[in-house]
Structures are given as structure tokens and as C-alpha cells.
Amino acid sequence: MKLVEAKDGLYVFHLAKRERALLTHVLKMFPVSSGPIGPLSKSGDEAKLAEHELALAEALAEQRVEHQRLMDAFLGEQGRFAEVKGGFQVRLTTVQFDWLLRVLNEVRVGLWVKLGRPEHIAPLAMAGQLDSVVEMEICAFFQSRLLEAVSGGN
Amino acid sequence: MGGGVENSAVAFHAADVPTTIELPEVAPDIIREDKTESKENLDPGFLVICWNDPVNLMDFVTHVFQQVFAWKKEKAEFHMMQVHNAGKSVLVRETMERAEFYVHELQKYQLHATMEPAE
């Protein structure tokens, strides 16, 4: 995945054929897990906070529904991945760019949560969790490429 | 300007001047003002804290801080490094409502953020 052009709030990336397949694969995994990554607060009155914790869970659930709607539109749109020599081109607005980063991260973090929130990820590869570890790395690869693009590298 | 005491039409003699002057006793009025305190003293507010985790990418955390707080990259990176090295970073101190809003926004990006009462 390489940045071809970034101009006027529009990012154009080139993806090799296998990269498109991998990106589509991890995006279709969404959503991996539900619920917040952590509590709203580590201290304070639990009874008072319960209502606020619920509000957080609801906000995240609403966002998940919206992400799914955008995902269906993203993957289902004709010409989203325009075929070019050696692969595909994908165009992202700044909003779509941020959304893609979020979704990739949500898949990655969701897999990590399902793995039991390990402190070190690598040893899990030897414990029958290789698929999830590899999928996390695929997400990280695309996230890194997107972040490089926004920071001026490629 | 001229006209010193010597030239004054009214001459004073030392004997006419009392050695002590009795002043009327005047008790000052005491006006009690309501004590004013800064907003921070009235309400210590809440700290929005981001905690370290082994899964979120460092550049992603920087990106999120820039998006959520509209910080410049340098400030976002400073807080990201604080999270990475110290295990947590206090991002902002806000009212309960604003702190809750920020925690929601950060958790929507899958960052481990919480709000804690400021002491």
C-alpha cells in the first residue's frame, strides 16, 4: 500500500492485489468485540458511575452500528477499488481516512481483547492463536501505511 | 508662588496650638464581602487520563490526540510518550460533562481513557 497522492483533503493509495484481499479480509471481520476497552473511571462512586458507564456503552454501540453502515457502503461501492496496472487505487476523503483508521484499530483491539488482553502478543503465536495474531498484524500494517501518509511519509 | 506662613494675614502663635488633638472616635463600618473563589476551587473537576496498553500503535495514539483535542503534533506526541513511558498521561482537567465527553471520544478510538476526580 503506497500513497500516490494527497491533495485537497483527498488521499489516493495504490494497493497490490494481495493487499486489497487482505484489507477486505480484516475489514469484513468488523465488529470483533463489543463493549468498552475499559471502564469510564477507575475511582469514584460505582453506583453514581453506573449510569455513565451505561451511556458510554450505548455511545460505543451506536458508533459500531454507524461503522457497519459505512463499511457496507465502502466495500459495496462500485469502483471503490479502481483497477490499475499492478493492482488497485483507492481514494479516501479525510473523513473516510479517519474512519478507516478507526475501523482497522477496532478490529485489531477487538482481536487483542478476544485473546485475553495479553501483555506480549508474540508468544501467543505458539499457543494456537496464530490466525488472530496475523490478522492483528495485517491491521497494524495498513494503519501504519495510513499514518505514514498523514505524517508526510510514504 | 510666594506667600509663605510669614506673609499670611493670620499669625499663629505656638501657645494657641494644642499639644494634643482629640479626634472623634469613629468606628469603621465593616463590610463583609462574599468570599470569591476561583472556579477551580469551587469544583476541582475531573482529570481525563489515558493509560498505556500493549496494543494501540504509538503513531495512532498521537493521531487520536490530535483529532480529539485539536492539538499540534508536538503536544500530542509529548502526551503519547508520557503514556508509553510512564504508563499514563493526564490529558486535560475538565468539568464532569466535558471529561465524560472526552473519555467517550477517546474510547471510540479504542484508547484506554478514564476520568478521575481531581483532588
Features:
heterodimer; A: 154 residues; alpha+beta; 4-stranded antiparallel beta sheet; 4 helices; 4 strands; 55% helix; B: 119 residues; Ribosomal Protein L30, Chain: A; 3-stranded antiparallel beta sheet; disordered N terminus
Structural summary, described in words:
The complex is a heterodimer of chains A (154) and B (119). Chain A has a domain at 2-34 and 79-150. Chain A is 55% helix and 15% strand. Chain A has helices at residues 17-28, 46-76, 94-114, 130-150, and strands spanning 2-7, 10-15, 81-84, 87-93. A four-stranded antiparallel β-sheet of chain A has the order 1-2-4-3. In chain A, a hairpin with a 2-residue loop joins strand 1 (2-7) and strand 2. The longest helix of chain A has 31 residues, at 46-76. Chain B is an alpha+beta fold and 119 residues long. Chain B has a domain at 39-117: Ribosomal Protein L30, Chain: A. Chain B has four helices and three strands, in the order H-E-H-H-E-H-E. Chain B has a three-stranded antiparallel β-sheet. The A-B interface holds A 36-44, 52, 55-56, 59-60, 63, 98, 101-102, 105-106, 108-109, 112, 118-121, 136, 140, 143-144, 147, 150-151 and B 51, 53-57, 59-60, 63, 67, 73, 100, 103-104, 107-117.
